[in-house]
């Protein structure tokens, strides 16, 4: 089983074997769906059978990530978490976040102007601030560590304990059980990620300084309820944490991919800037109301999601019962993956030359939306944060490119140095840290950035 850049191997299998591929790893059945037809049939039409998750001995039992609805089995406990999240993240609910997204994106412009070399840090800060509406960088760092750990541990086959669950009982000191020590270290980040922000909001509520937030509104509602299940507070804490987890690193990594694409594909950058200048007249900063007039800008963030999807192999769904599709038997408990990376490169859906970063492909009729082709996952488990995420991506791309040029760095002789990076392996994939130059496009852009209110 591939442990690095695994989606490349699975794409090769897809080309070799067709719409469905199967691997048996120590008795674990892994099924890869390599066509839109297959994905639709299993994840949408037969969704009641393909919405479960596997047990995750490493991530859940040893590392303690069971609080995240992402890893919960299909059932009432998952449904309660999903409902709590949906309540605040359905398409009309996310309208409420737009002023916050605008406010923190404008702050991002100022940060980029002040210390452009720290662009990754600034993007991370902004995404975290949008989610938390706060400056709580320690929590963002904890979340980052926890998610990196989950990303590493989530690769199918990375840890043998996922294939041989009895191994979780091996004591840490036994030679070959170093995964137990690793899990113990990671467990602390993962539990802190849920506990610390929740305790912080509760403390603020107790001393009357809490801002309205997911946690505070749900806790207030709970306090006022005549009846609530004993574990209702647990659901609020878990859901708040998963929102933080989902929101603090996913958008960040997609934006880091976008910035890289701008360095590598300068013609795209110019086209977005022309569109933005035409609509905004160089006078004001972008607003969400401009979206309808900025199709190429929208196409650019969508292309970032397609060109290198954040979750290249999706998150595996598990089959609840035995099933048969086109004569292929899928056993109960099989882990079923939508082969997103491969599907997002299908020329029938996205036009020619799908290795190239080309938002122009979405300007042609009949092109698929990456968000509905695997970039946000599938069926009943599809990403519940997707509406908010797309808004964050749009406003960041529009605001950054209206005001900055993103170019390669230069060496001492003035020659351009292309960024050095690799794609990270694991459940999440994004470029490793790289360098580029981010400079205001003009004096006017600089004044525009600096003249927006300094306080956010
Ligand atoms: C560009 C940003 C994002 C991308 C590319 C993304 C992608 C994904 C993918 C591929 C899945 C797996 C779906 C499946 O199992 O089929 C997922 C699940 C999930 N995402 Fe996102 N996501 C993003 C942003 C967010 C945000 C902002 C939040 C929270 C505010 C969030 C919260 C979640 C949660 C809670 C799940 C688990 C759903 C479940 O298991 O039922 N995501 N996301």
TrEMBL record:
Q: Where is this region: Disordered?
A: 354-375
> What are the entry keywords?
Heme, Iron, Metal-binding, Monooxygenase, Oxidoreductase
Task: Quote the pathway field.
Answer: Secondary metabolite biosynthesis
Has the keyword Oxidoreductase been applied to this entry? yes
PROSITE patterns, alphabetized: CYTOCHROME_P450 (PS00086)
Q: Which residues form a coiled coil?
A: none
Q: Which family does it belong to?
A: Belongs to the cytochrome P450 family.
Q: What is this protein called?
A: Unplaced genomic scaffold SPHSTscaffold_74, whole genome shotgun sequence
Organism expressing this protein natively: Sphaerobolus stellatus (strain SS14)
């Amino acid at each position: 089983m591939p442990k690095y850049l695994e989606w490349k191997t699975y794409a090769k299998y897809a080309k070799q074997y067709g719409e469905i591929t199967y691997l048996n790893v120590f008795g674990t059945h892994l099924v890869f769906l390599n066509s839109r037809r297959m994905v639709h049939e299993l994840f949408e039409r037969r969704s009641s059978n393909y919405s479960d998750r596997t047990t995750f001995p490493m991530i859940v039992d040893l590392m303690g990530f069971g609080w995240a609805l992402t890893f919960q089995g299909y059932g009432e406990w998952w449904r309660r978490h999903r409902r709590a999240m949906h309540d605040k993240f359905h398409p009309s609910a996310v309208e409420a976040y737009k002023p916050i997204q605008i406010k923190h994106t404008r702050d991002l412009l100022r940060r980029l102007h002040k210390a452009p070399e720290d662009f990754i840090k600034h993007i991370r800060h902004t995404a975290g601030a949008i989610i938390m509406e706060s400056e709580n960088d320690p929590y963002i760092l904890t979340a980052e560590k926890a998610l990196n750990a989950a990303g590493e541990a989530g690769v199918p086959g990375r840890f043998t304990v996922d294939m041989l669950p009895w191994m979780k009982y091996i004591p840490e000191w036994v030679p070959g059980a170093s995964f137990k020590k690793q899990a113990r270290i990671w467990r602390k980040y993962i539990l802190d990620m849920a506990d610390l922000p929740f305790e912080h909001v509760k403390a603020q509520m107790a001393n009357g300084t809490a801002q309205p937030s997911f946690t505070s509104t749900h806790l207030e509602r709970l306090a006022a309820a005549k009846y609530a299940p004993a574990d209702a507070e647990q659901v609020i804490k878990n859901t708040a944490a998963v929102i933080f987890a989902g929101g603090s690193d996913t958008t960040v990594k997609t934006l880091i991919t976008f910035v890289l694409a701008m360095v590598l594909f300068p013609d795209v950058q110019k086209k977005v800037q022309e569109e933005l200048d035409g609509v905004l007249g160089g006078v004001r900063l972008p607003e969400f109301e401009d979206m309808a007039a900025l199709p190429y800008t929208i196409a650019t963030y969508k292309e970032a999601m397609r060109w290198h999807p954040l979750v290249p192999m999706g998150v595996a769904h598990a089959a609840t019962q035995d099933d048969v599709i086109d004569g292929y038997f899928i056993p109960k408990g099989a882990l079923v993956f939508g082969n997103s990376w491969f599907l997002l490169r299908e020329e029938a859906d996205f036009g020619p030359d799908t290795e190239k970063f080309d938002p122009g492909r979405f300007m042609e009729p009949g092109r698929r939306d990456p968000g509905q082709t695997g970039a946000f996952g599938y069926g009943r488990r599809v990403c519940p944060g997707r509406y908010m995420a797309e808004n964050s991506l749009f406003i960041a791309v529009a605001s950054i490119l209206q005001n900055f040029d993103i170019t390669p760095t230069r060496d001492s002789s003035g020659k351009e140095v292309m960024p050095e990076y690799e794609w990270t392996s694991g459940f999440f994939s994004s470029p490793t840290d790289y360098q580029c130059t981010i400079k205001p496009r003009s004096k006017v852009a600089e004044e525009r950035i600096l003249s927006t209110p300094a306080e956010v």
